[in-house]
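To: structure desk
From: M.T.
Subject: fold request, one chain
Message: Could you run this one when you get a chance? Sequence is below, nothing fancy, just the single chain.
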Amino acid sequence: MSSFTAHANQSYLVSGLHQHPQRDGVYFLEGRFKNQQVVIDCASFLHGITVIENSKRDFLMLYESECYGILESIDEYSQENEFACLRVNSSEKAWSLSKSNGDCP
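Reply: Done. Structure tokens follow.
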């Protein structure tokens, strides 16, 4: 898997998620992502967030509890008809998730 840093510090406005049709524990985030696909993988040996653009991948490893925490929070916000703001900083190996209050670019 190749890695790139074009998305070193990105924010994603997330409206929900849906499960990969053939892989339990792998979810695609739903939202308006410019030519990108954001995947949360809580099933593989390495849990993480993968941002895919033009066949290139940027991967941020997560602990198992972080992975499932992200999924649970996004699902909770979605059920409340709220958006989540997922911020990923792959160069610093950091992420944050919050309920969006219109502050997620």
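Reply (cont.): DSSP finds one helix and seven strands in the chain. Let me know if you need anything else for the meeting.
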